[in-house]
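Quick start: what a row looks like.
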Amino acid sequence: MAQNYVIQPLPALKTLRHSSKYPHSTVIGLLVGTIEGDKTTISDAIPLVHHWLDLSPMLEAGVALAKIILRLVGTYIAHARIDLKSLDIVSQRINESLQSEHSIASSYIDNQKLNTSENPFIPYTRSKTSGDWSPLDDKYLQASIPKDWLNSGGSIGDFDDHLEDLGVDWLVNPSIVCPA
């Protein structure tokens, strides 16, 4: 039986705000949540990078810091190029480092769907037999996307922003709240 994924409103908002803040860059972030049986609930998202997109010491440091205090269940990625519609090698490697006995979630954000009513999240999972990453059918993903997400207040910052300004709280992003 396939794993079911639920993205709650706050992580949906954070991932969409992260990708829309840097439309000129590929962005990668971490998904935080719980895994219970065949259900993975994504309760938060941690914006990771928009500069250091290779397997750099900065990227590794950000993942290591987040792993210390959070239950990471996967990653998200939004490519700068709209013709790329799959996970890149970096997000695959991060997911493999998070892999345990549970299935790891990964989501690709289709930037072409950001200004539409369509769900922009495309879930990916890794085959236990071949090890390849492939998209899941939409029926396995339930995403709660806040209405008017683009106009919600607050500024989002990722680990790259934190490296430039230590005042940026990239692990929490307290100014990002879901509209009522």
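That is the whole record. The first strand starts at residue 4 and ends at 7. Helices lie at 9-21, 57-69, 89-98, 159-164.
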